[in-house]
Amino acid sequence: MVRPAPSLEDALGASYHSAQVPARVRLNTNESPYGPPPAVARALEEAVALDLARYPDRRAEALRAALGRLHGVAPTSIFVANGSNEVLETVLAAWGGPGRRLWLAEPTYGMYRQIARVTRTTVVAGARRSDGSIDPSSLEADSELVIVCQPNNPTGMLEPPEVMDRVLACDDRLVLVDEAYADFADLGPATLLGDHVVRIRTLSKAAGLAGLRLGYAVCAPEVADVLWSACLPYHVNAVTQAVAVAALADVDEIARRAALVVRERERVGQALGTLAARVWPSATNFILFDPGRPATEVWEGLVAKGILIRDASRWPGLSNTLRVTIGTADENDAFLAALGEVLA
């Protein structure tokens, strides 16, 4: 067969990977343990009445109106896509590419570098301080784009306010703030922070709709217009639009479920403190920890007991670490019991 473009060969070898193995408890991909709000089931039942012979609303007007109400912005400041990864890919398709540079500070979400590879955007490596926060002085490196995960995946940590102030002050660049875990960190609505800032959120986490694939950007209307021009037409299907609107009508239930996760996160974090060598502070729905023994061996021991978490030990700057998603109380108890047995 014809080989792919040479510039994509590295990307093909470094694509997203999360182990898919049988497990009775799956705590590896930061999904909600509680599922979507009840209104979603009703919306799915009603979706059979949609005219699926017709293309969906190309600009997702009803969905953008609902998201605009949630964040207190006009629908013209909303861009929607199939998950926040597609939002990122569209941004880099429009503002990245050959000769363009994306600044990021690892360890952070691995898909940033992957999407940069696919779009042929050069990565400029920032730096982090000993406490894990971004070193603001490293922002002085030249780039057209800056991306920060707030709170950060995979460490779970919030960047301090003074760091975010410095990031947002980069008004000569397009600043992307990935807030996928905002609902667990009490960040509030994604208000507009400047014409150069793109805030990215998702319904995959607190809303319990990872299988729906709906992410969105809150940004200046001029930026949103470019994103709509850069994406494929009719890219968000009619069922996704209808179900997402239904979920957004029940934001109080989403907040209640996020609060349950936060309470479990604190409990699991305290328990890990007695088992692991180090536990990172988390403002998300997962916890990063160093088990104090070879991480991959511990991961394998957990898999043997039917518990699947994430081996993060090969990620940049995270040697000998594991990441566990917060599940239900029963799932978390099963994880902690199995970890105690593996470490005994």
UniProtKB/TrEMBL annotation:
GO biological process terms, semicolon-separated: L-histidine biosynthetic process
Reactions catalysed: L-histidinol phosphate + 2-oxoglutarate = 3-(imidazol-4-yl)-2-oxopropyl phosphate + L-glutamate
InterPro entries: Aminotransferase_I/II_large (IPR004839), HisP_aminotrans (IPR005861), HistidinolP_aminotransfase (IPR050106), PyrdxlP-dep_Trfase (IPR015424), PyrdxlP-dep_Trfase_major (IPR015421), PyrdxlP-dep_Trfase_small (IPR015422)
Enzyme class: transferase
Keywords: Amino-acid biosynthesis, Aminotransferase, Histidine biosynthesis, Pyridoxal phosphate, Transferase
Domain of life: Bacteria
Pathway: Amino-acid biosynthesis; L-histidine biosynthesis; L-histidine from 5-phospho-alpha-D-ribose 1-diphosphate: step 7/9
Cofactor requirements of the protein: pyridoxal 5'-phosphate
CDD domains (alphabetical): AAT_like
Post-translational modification N6-(pyridoxal phosphate)lysine, affected residues: 205
One MF term in the entry's GO annotations: pyridoxal phosphate binding
EC number: 2.6.1.9
Domain (Aminotransferase class I/classII large) ranges: 25-339
HAMAP family: HisC_aminotrans_2
Assembly mode: Homodimer.
NCBIfam families in UniProt: hisC (TIGR01141)
Family the UniProt entry places it in: Belongs to the class-II pyridoxal-phosphate-dependent aminotransferase family. Histidinol-phosphate aminotransferase subfamily.
The name this protein goes by in its record: Histidinol-phosphate aminotransferase
Organism per entry: Acidimicrobium ferrooxidans (strain DSM 10331 / JCM 15462 / NBRC 103882 / ICP)
Lineage summary: Bacteria, Bacillati, Actinomycetota, Acidimicrobiia, Acidimicrobiales
Originating gene: hisC
